[in-house]
Amino acid sequence: MSDSQPDLLTDAPSDPAAKEVTEPSVISSGTGADDADDRTPAANEAPSISKSQRVRDYIAANPKARNKDIVTALGSFGIKVGDVASVKSKLRQHGDKPALKRRGRPKGPKKSESKVASDPKPAKSTAKPARPAMVSSTDATVGIDVLEQCVEFIRKAGGIDHAQNALDLIRRIRSL
């Protein structure tokens, strides 16, 4: 280089006004290396606040805001819809916001709770279950008086389960 022109890379300008003139303008090459210089001034103001914290702060100030509204307000900070949805999901998990109403059929009780809450059932026998009775023409013509006697037998036995156990015993005795 010649002695008449200052070397811009190594020589510092003598006065501050000359520095503004001699600094080259930054042109983004699209490679991503210079993208930090292309940020909006709002993004450079407070880089210590994360995107998630910005979304949390906005939600605290505007609890009824939709994801789309939050992105519109905070889009200059590089916040996208997915960022907002993720933060809202985390807030719901930690109980900061009421959980969404569950749609569909309500959940049933857990199996362990249902066993504790119900009355204990009599122990089932380990005997081989009886074969189902074949339907015959006489089954279809059972009269009311026979049904009434069956109901009376069930009451005397102490319930349908006890009556069934008694009938199973009778079947086993007959099979011997």
TrEMBL record:
The annotated regions of Basic residues compositional bias extend over: 100-109
What organism is listed for this UniProt entry? Rubripirellula reticaptiva
Basic and acidic residues composition-biased segments: 110-122
Q: What is this protein called?
A: Uncharacterized protein
- In this chain, the stretch annotated as Disordered covers 1-55, 88-134
